[in-house]
Fold these 2 entries.
Entry 1:
Amino acid sequence: MFAQCSPRCASSVLLLVLLCCILPPPALGSKSSEDIRCKCICPPYRNISGHIYNKNVSQKDCNCLHVVEPMPVPGNDVEAYCLLCECKYEERSTTTIKVIIIIYLSVVGALLLYMAFLVLVDPLIRKPDAYTQPLHNEEENEDARSLAAAPTPSGARANTVLERVEGAQQRWKRQVQEQRKTVFDRHKMLS
């Protein structure tokens, strides 16, 4: 099956299989105990320090009487203590969090593998050619010789487009060299 599939198709199939393994089937849609909770934040009360209480209860039971255990105050102060507490029902999807983390780690891992490839393997693949370095040096020597050579006589007419382009290029190089001399040697700007 994968022999005829492109790399993009194979990665899509792999991602689909990964998601099927992580995500629960839709029939098991009930929330797990770590996906829901009731959080009560109770401030300091008389000689009792403030405290945060968490408990896995349903949304209708999310109040101080069901969440705060053990009750830190005696029976007649329970109502006053519970009025100070702020209880919130919280729901989250741990499956979504897991999928996002897996995608994030996959991207970071792929980037690290690519970096390792560039650092370790790429220099071995791209060995410097024995022919390109002498050619590059020869081009630099040609450029230096052409700049040192006297300009071509203006009376000679350029016959081809290539000769005209080469002539314009030589004039441009002479102008650049003159500007460099003026700016760097004489510290003046041309107008």
Entry 2:
Amino acid sequence: MKVKVISVLEDNYMYLVIEESTRDAIAVDAAVPKRLLEIVRKEEVVLRAILTTHHHWDHARGNEELARLCPGLRVYGADERIGALTHKVTHEQELTFGAIRVRCLFTPCHTSGHMCYFMWEDGSPDAPALFSGDTLFVGGCGKFFEGTAEQMYINLTQILGALPKETKVFCGHECTVRNLKFALKVEPENEIVKNKLTWAKGGALAEVHGEDGPGGGAEDAPHGEG
């Protein structure tokens, strides 16, 4: 499978996951329909489903329009507040899209209905991928709008922390530098944080994601570049 990283709004990421043998595609957090459909057309794929991590407008606001424009589109999520929802999913439920397997991982805290999506292809040499929405970022985690610190701790250490170490993480926002600056204030002598911040400031994020920064267009991000 191939993951297209699409930078939208102020600092959001939405994703298009392509099943390369069938040319079917799944969108994750389809916030900007026009931009998503431009990439769908460019890649010559058919959009079959949307996986929505949570109901906030900057992750789910495009669902209704896409459902109207793409008859038969399936919209998955764990929260009834998600627009155009057709399939409500539960923790550890597995979905199949051609060769792509998806495991739903319930991570309530940022919102009470937040779901992450773990994806892989059986027999593929590529590392699996986690679409973590607003639960896990690079150097930080999401705000606790509808949950507790205890819930987030479980999310990070027991649910997401139990995934294979080679998993590539595709998060919902670009806030790496801001998160690492905060971490350095808390632990000013932490060499790991210092090195990571230097990496992030040095343009490594644009290289990894293959994009021009928040608000820019989408470029190739082959699976394995998280």
